[in-house]
Amino acid sequence: MSDNPGLLLATLATSLLVAPIIFLLPERAWLARTSLNLGAALLKLGLVALMVWGVARGDSYAFGFTVVEGVSFELRADPLGIMFAGLSSLLWLFTTLYAIGYLEGSDNRKRFFGFFSLCVASTLGIALAGNLFTFLLFYELLTLSTYPLVVHRGTPKALAAGATYLRYTVSGGVLLLIAVVALHVLAGEVSFGQREILAELGPEQHPWLIGIFVLLMLGLGVKAALVPLHGWLPQAMVAPAPVSALLHAVAVVKAGAFGIVRVVYDVYGIALSYELGLLTGLAIIASFTILYGSLRALAQVDIKRRLAFSTVSQVSYIMLGISLFGPMGTVAGLAHLLHQGLMKVTLFFCAGNYAEELGIHRIDELDGVGRRMPGTSLAFTFGALGMIGIPPLVGFLSKWYLGMGAIQAGMPWVIAVLVASSLLNAAYFLPILYRLWFKPGPLEGSGEWPHERRLGRLETSAWLLWPALGTAAFSLLAGIFAGLPLSPLSWASLIATQEYLP
Amino acid sequence: MSLAHLLLLSVAWPLCVAALVAGILAWRHGHALVEQRSSGRYVVPPGIAGDWPYRWRVALWVSAPLPALAVALALPESMLTMEWWLLGGDWRLDGTRRALLGFTALLWALAGGYAHGYLSGKARRARHGDPDAERDLQAFVLLWPLTLAGNLMLILAEDIASFYTGFAIMTFAAYGLVVNAGTREAYRGGRAYLIMAILGEGMILAGLLWAAASAETLTLTGLREGLAVSAQATIMATLLWLGFGVKAGVIGLHVWLPLAHPVAPTPASAVLSGAMIKAGLLGWWQTLPLGLTALAGLGTTIISLGLIAAFAAALYGVTQRHPKAVLAYSSVSQMGMMTALIGVGLLAPSLWPMLLPALVLFAVHHGLNKGALFLGVGITEHPPRMPGWLLWLLLALPALSLAGALASGLSAKWMLKAGLYDAGWNGLVLLLTLAAVGTSLLMARTLWCQAHAWQKARRQGVAAAPLSMTLAWASGALLAAAVPWWLMLPEAPVGAVQPSDLPPWGELAGLMWPALLGAVVTAALVVASHLEPRLHTRLSHAERLPPGDLWPLYVVATHSLMERVRRGVAQLGNAQEAVQGAAASWARQAMVGLTALQRWEAVLRRWAVALMVVSGGVLWLTLMR
Question: Which of A137, A294, B387, B558 has the most CB atoms lying inside 10 A of its own CB?
Answer without folding.
Answer: A294
